[in-house]
Prior knowledge:
Layout: H1 8-23, E1 29-32, H2 34-42, E2 46-52, E3 57-62, H3 67-70, E4 83-87, H4 91-105, E5 110-114, H5 119-144, H6 147-150, E6 164-166, H7 183-197, H8 200-203, E7 212-216, H9 223-233, E8 238-242, H10 253-267, E9 271-276, H11 279-282, H12 295-309, E10 317-323, H13 331-334, E11 341-344, H14 350-360, H15 372-378, H16 384-400, H17 408-420, H18 431-450, E12 457-461, E13 471-474, H19 484-494, H20 496-504, H21 513-528, H22 557-584, H23 586-599, E14 601-603, H24 604-611, H25 619-654, H26 665-669
Parallel strand pairs: 1-4, 2-5, 7-10, 7-11, 8-9, 9-10
Antiparallel strand pairs: 2-3, 3-4, 6-8, 12-13, 12-14
Helix pairs in contact: 1-5, 10-12, 14-15, 14-16, 16-17, 18-19, 18-20, 18-23, 19-21, 19-22, 20-22, 21-22
Amino acid sequence: xxxxxxxxxxxxxxxxxxxxxxxxxxxxxxxxxxxxxxxxxxxxxxxxxxxxxxxxxxxxxxxxxxxxxxxxxxxxxxxxxxxxxxxxxxxxxxxxxxxxxxxxxxxxxxxxxxxxxxxxxxxxxxxxxxxxxxxxxxxxxxxxxxxxxxxxxxxxxxxxxxxxxxxxxxxxxxxxxxxxxxxxxxxxxxxxxxxxxxxxxxxxxxxxxxxxxxxxxxxxxxxxxxxxxxxxxxxxxxxxxxxxxxxxxxxxxxxxxxxxxxxxxxxxxxxxxxxxxxxxxxxxxxxxxxxxxxxxxxxxxxxxxxxxxxxxxxxxxxxxxxxxxxxxxxxxxxxxxxxxxxxxxxxxxxxxxxxxxxxxxxxxxxxxxxxxxxxxxxxxxxxxxxxxxxxxxxxxxxxxxxxxxxxxxxxxxxxxxxxxxxxxxxxxxxxxxxxxxxxxxxxxxxxxxxxxxxxxxxxxxxxxxxxxxxxxxxxxxxxxxxxxxxxxxxxxxxxxxxxxxxxxxxxxxxxxxxxxxxxxxxxxxxxxxxxxxxxxxxxxxxxxxxxxxxxxxxxxxxxxxxxxxxxxxxxxxxxxxxxxxxxxxxxxxxxxxxxxxxxxxxxxxxxxxxxxxxxxxxxxxxxxxxxxxxxxxxxxxxxxxxxxxxxxxxxxxxxxxxxxxxxxxxxxxx
Length: 670
């Protein structure tokens, strides 16, 4: 179909300007032959002549008082500077003729020679600025009106949504098979995908799919990866953007982008909208310390709340969002009807870390020494992103050492590198400093080995790494709850370094500053948050709702003083306990410190050779044992079920009443 384009008008105007220039000339023109030109030249009719060498043409301007000799029939219409054009034989013949005319007739005509016609140059001088202005105006109008693909740089498209659209034709290859662990979160998200693929399964019973799901969890746990898997599995349009994409310096832009996003989503419904880092616009309203200086963010949030569950309908549009700061989100955003589900994506446990390692080990060339279960036990508290970093760092370390395969040693070095930092063996230390560090680290190792609830030791080193001059590596227990005894044992082991310095060196140093910071925070948490103090039992001064306590503390000055006294008492008791344990095991401590000075790195096997085997099994071993027992029990139940089914089948076959040719009692009666 013929469709009118507004930009055709620009071309029409341009053509009219060219035609006007070509047809309208302020001077009268006429072409004469060479013979007449010679005659008029000898009569001194021309004021000046321009000879164009390239075209053998002469442009002659007629004197104003002799116009009637050239244009006798239109003498009343002549312009002030009429011109004539003459086709000459050549420039040389014209020069000879002109020289003779000057000598014999004494003419005063000025003559100049040029190489070509200046018509185009005159045109550019006359209309060049106008054309340039029109082109610049067209360029800015196209940019302002959202032309050139409606890109983000357009002035009028600043209120358009910047969401990236994914559909079945995009190259989104991430599926749920690529997401290891996160069993509970995957189940919740898979249900949303299942509804989009087969909605009648749920609506036939009167159920409704949740309008929104909020993924909450620490950084690096796989929230965005889950969203990518949804985009790869759903086979429906998937809009992806960040919370910061709504933020702009112009007033009203955020709300406009929210409206445009949901307008596009409604057009492509059913679809999924994923907003990553939603806390950028979802922060609770009315808590800004700058009073009303950030109303634009609140207007954006208000528009988002209205679009998600307002007076209008958003059927078929499901909202997925992710954040690691759910405590600062507005309560209206979290209510049912907007985000019906909050899916908590926690740090992976032992089994989930093993699955994640298996995923990230696929593209890496490893040998038989690498065990995913061992690596999972060595990385407690690691997120999925941390595990990916470990695998990549191990591959880099192996390549740096010119290995053909990545080995167990490379993974151990990668874990140490990520947790503690890069080794600094070139750092200059005196012998006294090395001895002090060895005694300090041996104190930590000794007490942690002798306490039941302290974290099991992995290795101790006095090699500087990162900001630390020495380190003791432990295998933290993955507890769901922590008792008072466990907290006290951890505090005692943390104070072991300072206690060893005081006992065996007779002086203390600044090397325990980080230990003291951790112990102080832990003791304060025991008193203020956990209610584990003898003088302040069962009292908690922490507000989990996120409202905080305003500008004042929720307790009096007397209570604050009592808190300080209790914190100091707990730390003092554990410090004395650490010194008593070290005094009782002074010989073993000295052997461990000497081994550190000699070898710089001591492993748990060496500590076991000095102090003997720990009588308490680690929690990781208990978890593995319980899991193995559960697996064996499940296999036994399945086997027993199969045997029962086979026994029932045999009994049914052995029943004589079911055999052919055998009459049943009721049939015999008949």
